[in-house]
Write a structure and sequence with these properties.
Blueprint lengths: L2 H28 L2 H49 L5 H83 L3 H13 L5 E5 L2 E2 L8 H9 L12 E3 L3
Parallel strand pairs: 1-3
Antiparallel strand pairs: 1-2
Helix pairs in contact: 1-3, 2-3
The protein binds zinc ion.
């Protein structure tokens, strides 16, 4: 086999390894997607729980203001009790005060209920925050682990790329260009073996005369169907 073919085969081997490493790096980068989604969901649950807690607190504050207003009104009416002229007016004011007291009782009951809800919401915030923190830790640990693996892959890739440069330097430019063009068009595989008379790139049966020529290993010959460079390893 001539040196050009030998060099092309070496180049292809290196490129296949580099492609594989690149693919593994890509896969690794996307492998934490589900963890990232889970972490984002946790963050959202925290925000939602905080919003519920806030809503509750605001509601309680509003109700407390209502109680204050009812107290003020009752205080005012009680003050007026001393100044009324008739029994009827006195009775009417007392009914008014009693109604206000009923209303106040109801609001206070509501406050107790709402405060219970606030307490639940507060506990929920604590629970989802704890879950969120755990999820963050898991994600960070996995990301650190992943980063290490990626660094290893990149180191390997740099070595292979260095070897590739040496392999390319041994080729004439026209041949290197041809190889690169086929690789671009044919999804990474530019030079393939002939086995059982067929191209191992596109698996078409090759004319016997072509196979004989390829076996000699003298010329650079292409598959007539897929255009890949052919060789026979014997
Ligand atoms: Zn082919």
């Amino acid at each position: 086999m001539n040196d050009d073919l030998q060099n092309l085969i070496t180049l292809q081997e290196l490129d296949s390894v580099i492609d594989g490493l690149r693919l593994r790096e890509e896969e690794m980068k996307t492998s934490l997607e589900s963890e990232k989604v889970a972490a984002a969901e946790c963050e959202q649950r925290v925000e939602e729980a905080k919003a519920r807690n806030q809503e509750c607190t605001v509601l309680v504050r509003g109700l407390e203001t209502d109680v204050q207003e009812l107290d003020d009104k009752m205080e005012k009416y009680r003050g007026q009790l001393n100044d009324v002229k008739s029994n009827r007016e006195y009775a009417s004011l007392q009914i008014e005060i009693s109604n206000l007291q009923d209303k106040k009782d109801r609001v206070e009951e509501q406050i107790i209920k709402e405060m219970e809800k606030c307490e639940e919401a507060k506990l929920e915030v604590q629970a989802v925050e704890a879950a969120r923190d755990k999820e963050r830790q898991v994600l960070q640990a996995k990301e650190a682990e992943q980063q290490k693996k990626i660094e290893v892959l990149r180191g390997k890739k740099r070595n292979e790329e260095g070897a590739r440069e040496n392999a390319v330097a041994k080729l004439r430019k026209i041949l290197a260009d041809k190889y690169n063009n086929i690789r671009t068009v044919r999804g990474g595989l530019a030079i393939v073996e002939v086995k059982g008379g067929s191209c191992q790139g596109c698996f078409i049966n090759l004319p016997p005369q072509l196979v004989i020529e390829v076996r000699k290993g003298v010329e650079i010959l292409d598959c007539y169907s897929c255009g890949r460079i052919l060789y026979i390893n014997e």
